[in-house]
Design goal:
GO terms for molecular function: galactosyltransferase activity. The protein is α/β, with parallel strands linked by helices. It contains five helices and eight strands; from the N terminus they run βαβαβββββααβα. The chain has a five-stranded mixed sheet, sandwiched between helices. It has a three-stranded mixed sheet with strand order 4-8-6. Bound molecules: uridine-5'-diphosphate (UDP) and manganese (II) ion. The site of uridine-5'-diphosphate has 16 residues, from strand 1.
């Protein structure tokens, strides 16, 4: 039978070998069970600078697009595994925030502004928001920037209920090379994409 969707899974990555093994193992089964056609792109940060998660998203998008025609792009952390098969990894009419609840935060959704962990976009919507910021190095802010890019284009964010969009996140400490920056959500001005268009 012909799969209805061809989906690219873009995974930002550096020095999380165990996570990557568990991710690949779980996601192949999960996505196969959803009967979608998929390709997982692990985008490795090899240059020895502070980690830049969002730039890896953009690189993954470009590489995947050059290789195949995808109708949906999923940007997904390596340490998160979806728990429910009904959490479908394909695009409908809106950008979607995938990681609504997770084990480490007792399955409580903490903010509708949270847009981290895993999101998905159609190519049209990804290009409408001009992708993710390339400018943010270190931990924090790049997901909030993406949230405002979506809102600024008058798009709505789709979410499944927390009972469906639930995740297991692997335990981990702070990575070397990914220090926390101060670009948190209330610094909207500094992050605002129309002020920082690159
Ligand atoms: N990441 C990575 N190596 C690093 C830092 C981050 O591979 O040194 C990737 C990995 O996919 C990870 C994601 O970036 O899941 C987000 O980082 P982190 O898990 O630290 O953020 P959290 O959501 O746990 O605060
Ligand atoms: Mn994590």
């Amino acid at each position: 039978c012909e799969p209805l969707y061809n989906v690219a899974i873009i995974v930002p990555y550096r020095q999380r070998e165990n996570h990557l093994k568990m991710f690949i193992n779980n996601m192949h089964r999960f996505l196969s069970n959803q009967s979608i056609s998929f390709t997982i792109y692990v985008v490795e940060h090899t240059c020895p600078t502070i980690f830049n998660r969002a730039i890896l998203h953009n690189i993954g998008y470009k590489e995947a697009k050059a290789e195949q025609k995808f109708d949906c792009y999923v940007f997904h952390d390596v340490d998160l595994i979806p728990e429910k098969l009904e959490n479908y990894y394909h695009c409908d009419n809106s950008p979607q925030h995938l990681v609504v609840t997770r084990n480490r935060t007792k399955y409580i959704m903490f903010s509708t502004r949270y847009f981290g962990g895993g999101v998905l976009f159609s190519p049209e919507h990804y290009e409408l928001i001009n992708g993710f910021t390339n400018k943010i190095f270190g931990w924090g802010g790049e997901d909030n920037n993406a949230y405002f890019r979506v809102l600024d284009k008058n798009l709505t964010i789709h979410r499944y209920p927390g009972s469906v969009a639930s995740y297991t996140m692997f335990e981990h400490g702070w990575d070397t090379g990914n220090p926390r920056n101060d670009l948190i959500v209330d610094k909207r001005e500094a992050l605002h994409p129309t002020r920082n268009p690159e």
